């Protein structure tokens, strides 16, 4: 059992060497009335979940699987930007550990470096009629793993902080930085204690800006140059004819 501390408030971290999914464990802890916020950390997941029903490969050694559970009891609209803010604060916090590699966010939920993904984020929430009952924010972060050992289907598209930064990192330090970044995102976004603009905070961290990307919207493929996000968090695409399209959900891919 470990603790991190932000502005004097302690957060308990429960570590499991192996677990099915840290998001599922956080859910169980909430249903057993563990006092929130708390974090669940693990080195290996047997049933890691990704976005859109995908599996999250979680068997490679030296990575971090982490979830933080919150019980905010406030209107659900506050949730809209949470993952975007978490990505911003996590990227900023980790950047100090890899000074020679630019860490970026690929809209909406991935952390990238040099065009390869080193982390994915998954926010799961439960609501009552008009308030958020719980938020479980999970991140799978490739820390000290060696990408040449990844399963072949991931080798070209995935990387780790070790691979991009050139040195091994302390897992405890990485975990503490990420948990504090998630608490900061919660404070600024969910509890509304921040004054920074989402659009401005996002701009320097976007991995897609200026790149040609495709997205599927209403079953149609659209292509355009990505240019930041708007204040609702939607990705702005400028099509070849100059028209502006906004992507609100789903994934985008870089046009080859
Ligand atoms: C994605 O890119 O699709 C999001 C992946 C999120 C994976 C993390 S690992 C820790 C937490 N527990 C899970 O089962 N999933 C998230």
Please tell me about this protein's structure.
- With 256 residues, the chain is α+β, with helices and mostly antiparallel strands.
- The chain has two domains: 2-200, Bira Bifunctional Protein, Domain 2 (BirA Bifunctional Protein, domain 2, 2-Layer Sandwich); 208-254, SH3 type barrels (Roll).
- The protein contains six helices and 13 strands.
- An eight-stranded mixed beta sheet has the order 1-2-3-4-8-7-6-5, with helices on both faces. Strands 12-11-10-9-13 form a five-stranded antiparallel beta sheet.
- β7 and β8 (132-142) form a beta hairpin.
- α2 packs antiparallel against α5 (171-190).
- It is globular and about 55 Å long.
- It binds biotin.
Topology summary:
Elements: E1 2-6, E2 9-16, H1 22-31, E3 38-42, E4 63-70, H2 82-95, E5 104-106, E6 110-113, E7 116-127, E8 132-142, H3 152-155, H4 161-165, H5 171-190, H6 198-202, E9 212-217, E10 220-229, E11 235-238, E12 244-247, E13 252-254
Parallel strand pairs: 2-3
Antiparallel strand pairs: 1-2, 3-4, 4-8, 5-6, 6-7, 7-8, 9-10, 9-13, 10-11, 11-12
The structure holds biotin.
